[in-house]
Specification:
about 200 residues, alpha/beta, 2 domains, five-stranded mixed beta sheet
Length: about 200
């Protein structure tokens, strides 16, 4: 395991704490361990253990936080579809994740059958990013544990919040039957390559 330096409580003049790791330097997903609890190599930092934004420095040039603040990204209006654009059906749009018309997480918590849970979690995490956002999402139930980012992933047909894998793994959140069947039809492997050109969540 790569030796990780201590977190930095105060950045150097002209710099600010990294918005991704808050100066901890470590990958938020594996906490610098390079591997996940399952024993698999961390897919977020690709096994390096470092924060993917600051590269382990713990700090960024001053102003980076303002430029990439989640609020500024979320306030950007969504342009209407234009010819050539395609949509991926959104799943996992729960109310607690910012989808006002979505179902509540509590209503589906603990309802997912145990069968193929590991395969589903791996599938959800392996899909490429469709929408990238540096904002972090905390567990809606305990308010402390990091659940993922505000980004969205896709397999070209469906799109889902980056944090959905966490909720399936940690809270056994039930997913739509059609989505489960879709993943099973793909033999629990995200199809590659995926044409992201003109694709957006819908």
């Amino acid at each position: 395991m790569t030796e990780q330096p201590e977190p930095i409580p105060t950045p150097e003049p002209g710099y600010e704490l990294c918005y991704e790791c808050d100066g901890k330097r470590r990958c938020w997903l594996c906490s610098g361990d390079q591997v996940l609890a399952s024993g698999d190599r961390c897919g977020e930092c690709t096994g390096r253990g470092w924060c993917i934004v600051c590269g382990g420095a713990g700090e960024l040039v001053a102003g980076a936080r303002a430029r990439y603040a989640p609020s500024s990204l979320e306030s950007t209006p969504v342009a209407p579809l234009t010819p050539g654009q395609r949509t991926a059906s959104t799943v996992g749009g729960f109310r607690e994740l910012g989808y006002d018309d979505g179902p509540a997480l509590a209503a589906v918590r603990g309802k997912r059958p145990a069968a193929h849970q590991a395969e589903v979690v791996a599938y959800l995490r392996a899909a490429p990013l469709l929408v990238t956002s540096p904002g972090l999402v905390k567990d809606a139930f305990d308010g402390k544990t990091l659940a993922g980012k505000r980004s969205m992933r896709t397999d070209g047909v469906y799109a889902w919040p980056d944090s959905l894998a966490y909720y399936v793994e940690r809270h056994q959140v039930e997913l739509p039957a059609a989505f489960e069947a879709h993943m099973a039809q793909n033999h629990w492997r995200v199809p590659v390559p995926i044409d992201l050109t003109g694709l957006r969540p819908g």
